[in-house]
Design goal:
The protein is of the alpha+beta class and 90 residues long. 60% of the residues lie in helices and 26% in strands. The chain has a three-stranded antiparallel β-sheet. The longest helix has 34 residues. The radius of gyration is 17 Å and the shape is elongated.
């Protein structure tokens, strides 16, 4: 990878750093041979999914899709928890 693309990918990773910290089961690492590697779903001592990226645009879209999914799940969970609390008070 060229230095400029490494710099761009690093900025993308930093953009999504808080999401990854909050999830706690994913991270992005850089390796000279493989580029930027997204490691996801850490269980039993290993990551179940990994994806390699050599450009910032593809890395951005992958992390954005992950963010969108987490946002939707969070909103749905909040909705169902509120509905469950309402059922309990009736």
């Amino acid at each position: 990878m060229k230095q400029e693309e490494i710099r761009k990918c690093t900025k993308v990773v930093e953009l999504f750093r808080s999401m990854m910290d909050e999830l706690g089961d994913m991270c992005v690492v850089y390796d000279v041979r493989f580029g930027f590697i997204v490691l996801e779903y850490y269980m039993d001592g290993y990551f179940e999914n990994n994806s390699n990226y050599d450009n910032a645009e593809d890395l951005y879209h992958h992390l954005l899709d992950k963010w969108k999914f987490c946002w939707i799940v969070d909103k749905a969970l909040a909705h169902f928890e509120a509905a469950f609390r309402q059922i309990q008070t009736e």
